[in-house]
């Protein structure tokens, strides 16, 4: 079942709550509005003054034409090293907690950044999930997110007003773990319908050279051109992810599975830029190293955040405020993952367990449930009362 939502952007925004509350869940799967395709394919007016990091005219055209772009050598090792140092501290803090609680017998302090979490996870399965749930935006990641060259690029794609989007993630992909193998999806499938009508730019930044062997990314070229968000389902295997079937990519988004699937080799110091409706996935990591990466997002502050009113974004660039400094204190006063766990997790004896490896997400309310795993079972749906 699908609905023809050929409406204006303003009507879509005003009526999004009505649609969500009156239509069956499956109708939300098909909010396919051709009206928005120009948002994702038409290049906005470019800055008149060249700035450090600016993409070339050819790169900008490629981004809007294909829906993604690999940018090499945007960072120096010295700029990324503070983030690597903070990741090591994050892993050490987790190891200490698990050790003190008797969950692991060895701190594995002799292992480096790309091996230690794997060894911890062998003793406590789900350690990588705890990292995902407990990550904090340290100063090094704040500096990376608001890096001048990144904001100059964001300005080329979004316009002169740029905000950080509420959703960012540090991702540890340990070897041979399907729990951290993210299937095909469009990012807007994790957001609410208010995200459908505008560009949300993502920079996926790895902390080592990435390829097909160590959990690199695959993109579905041209999958953004219709401006549609396709039918997704929840949730494959022992995961909390949404899933976009390849048949649906072909039917709804016009993806040619033989020609349009691109494996992205992104080097350390580089990044992968893509749009919120470009289909993508990460591959299984069959190397011996943890593939660490961070995904950071930006959008225009004039648009709705599209994330269930859990958290607002953070203004990073404004024509009216040339000396603007991001208000990190205000942004960090809300932890979206803590908020969504409070709002959407069922209350039981495991809810407040700091070693609970279930992840509940508001997107479970939006998509068809085809596999009821432990993450789904821990979720409190809108029609269920809080305990």
TrEMBL record:
Lineage: superkingdom: Eukaryota
Reported cofactor(s): Fe cation
Gene3D superfamilies: q2cbj1_9rhob like domain (2.60.120.620)
Name of protein: Phytanoyl-CoA dioxygenase family protein
InterPro entries hit by this protein: Phytyl_CoA_dOase-like
């Amino acid at each position: 079942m699908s609905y023809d939502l050929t409406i204006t952007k303003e009507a879509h925004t005003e009526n999004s709550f009505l649609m969500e509350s009156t239509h069956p869940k499956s109708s939300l799967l098909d909010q396919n509005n051709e009206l928005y395709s120009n948002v994702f394919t038409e290049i906005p007016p470019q800055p008149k003054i060249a700035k450090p990091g600016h993409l070339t005219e050819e790169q900008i055209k490629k981004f809007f034409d294909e829906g993604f772009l690999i940018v090499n050598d945007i960072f120096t090792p010295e700029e990324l090293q503070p983030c690597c140092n903070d990741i090591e501290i994050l892993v050490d803090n987790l190891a200490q907690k698990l050790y003190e609680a008797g969950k692991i017998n060895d701190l594995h302090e002799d292992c480096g950044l790309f091996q230690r979490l794997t060894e911890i996870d062998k003793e406590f399965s789900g350690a990588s999930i705890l990292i995902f749930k407990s990550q904090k935006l340290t100063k090094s990641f704040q500096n990376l997110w608001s890096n001048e060259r990144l904001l100059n690029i964001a300005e080329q794609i979004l316009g002169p007003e740029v905000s950080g989007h509420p959703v960012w993630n540090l991702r540890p992909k340990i070897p041979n773990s399907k729990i951290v193998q993210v299937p095909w999806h469009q990012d807007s499938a994790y957001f609410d319908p208010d995200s459908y009508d505008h560009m949300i730019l993502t920079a996926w930044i790895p902390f080592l050279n990435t390829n097909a062997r160590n959990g690199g990314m695959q993109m579905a070229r041209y999958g953004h051109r219709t401006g549609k968000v396709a039918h997704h389902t929840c949730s494959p295997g022992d995961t909390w992810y949404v899933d976009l079937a390849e048949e649906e990519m072909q039917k709804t988004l016009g993806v040619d599975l033989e020609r349009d699937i691109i494996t992205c080799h992104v080097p350390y110091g580089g990044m992968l830029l893509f749009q919120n409706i470009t289909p993508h996935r990460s591959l299984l990591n069959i190397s011996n190293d943890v593939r660490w990466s961070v995904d950071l997002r930006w959008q225009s502050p004039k648009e709705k955040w599209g994330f269930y009113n859990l958290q607002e974004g953070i203004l990073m660039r404004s024509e009216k405020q040339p000396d603007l400094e991001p208000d990190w204190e205000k942004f960090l006063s809300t932890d979206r993952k803590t908020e969504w766990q409070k709002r959407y997790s069922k209350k039981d004896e495991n809810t407040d367990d700091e070693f609970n490896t279930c992840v509940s997400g508001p997107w479970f309310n939006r998509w068809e449930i085809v596999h009821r795993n432990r993450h789904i079972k821990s979720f409190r749906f809108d029609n269920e009362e809080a305990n």
